[in-house]
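Practice problem: predict the structure.
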Amino acid sequence: MTQDKNGSKKSASGQQVRPSRGASKPQSRHQVVIFLGPPGAGKGTQAERLAAEQQLTKISTGDILRDHVSRGTDLGQRVAPILKAGQLVPDDVLIALIRDFLSRMDSVRVIFDGFPRTAAQAEALEVLLEELGAPIQAVPLLEVPDDLLISRIVERGKTSKRSDDTEAVARERQQVYRQQTQPLIDYYAARGHLRRIDGVGSMNDVYGRLQQALE
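Answer:
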């Protein structure tokens, strides 16, 4: 292999060697997706499929909390009495737990489902992700009419035998969801991260819309 005065590489036969595709600037190795959607919208199913197909880690703050408690880490010892008392874990502790989890990843490729729950948590998470060089790719919001959500949950109750899958409980959940999540929707919409997705149709149809929203 030789190099001419212009810096172009040539093979031993004198032919110019073109740079390989791999020589181009690589895309970011990080991918962060935050799922939003009301109970019964199917976001858990869609998040699981996306995680499997795009090699993302689905983050559960509950799993992280229990892991630290079981390992007896400093954070775990701080969290254990809070959990035992049935109290909410402070935001700064949750962010510290997530920081510890993400900082041990070679590439931050994750899906958040169930966190953040408040605008304050969303702001703290975004600051952390920026520090790690892993900005949010998108925040998909699955939207399904209330009546359809209620019927889905009630139907699920018939097969799962869950005593809490009743129409009255389902309607209460929707009300709580709207009160708690609207500030998050506004927060991410203002930052251009929100992607509204029609959650009505087959799982494949909805997943196709999700894929398009993430492109």
